[in-house]
Amino acid sequence: MGLLDEVRANDYKHNRQSKIAEIKSKLAPEDYDEFVVAISDVTISQAALIRALQKRGIKIGTGTISNMRRDLLAGGLDLA
User: How many Å apart are CA 33 and CA 31, to the nearest integer?
Assistant: First the structure.
């Protein structure tokens, strides 16, 4: 593993974008659209999001959901 690979592996923002790409690839388009609505709605609990994604074979934790929401609110997360 080269230096750039190591930096990217430890870049949490890059990892969140990678997780978004994984979620998008594993969900049907309409389910992904609903995920975008759900992740944007802070009244929906992290636990509910995690359970729904895990039922679809996507491993994700509360920290990742929390960071995604924070980045989304700050305008630094691209869900397109």
Answer: 5
Helix 62-73 vs helix 46-55: crossing angle, to nearest 10: 120
CA atoms within a 13 Å half-sphere pointing along the CA-CB vector of 48: 8
Under 8 Å CB-to-CB from 30, ≥6 apart: which residues?
Answer: none
3-state DSSP call for residue 44?
A: coil
Taking Cα atoms as reference points, which of 30, 29, 31, 20 lies closest to residue 56? Answer: 31
- One-letter amino acid for residue 47 of the chain: A
Question: Which tens digit of pLDDT belongs to each residue from 26-80?
Answer: 999 999 999 999 999 999 999 999 999 999 999 999 998 998 899 888 887 788 8
Instruction: State pTM to two decimals.
Output: 0.75
Domain locations in the chain?
3-73
Going by C-beta distance under 8 Å and a sequence separation of 6 or more, which residues neighbour residue 72? 39, 40, 79
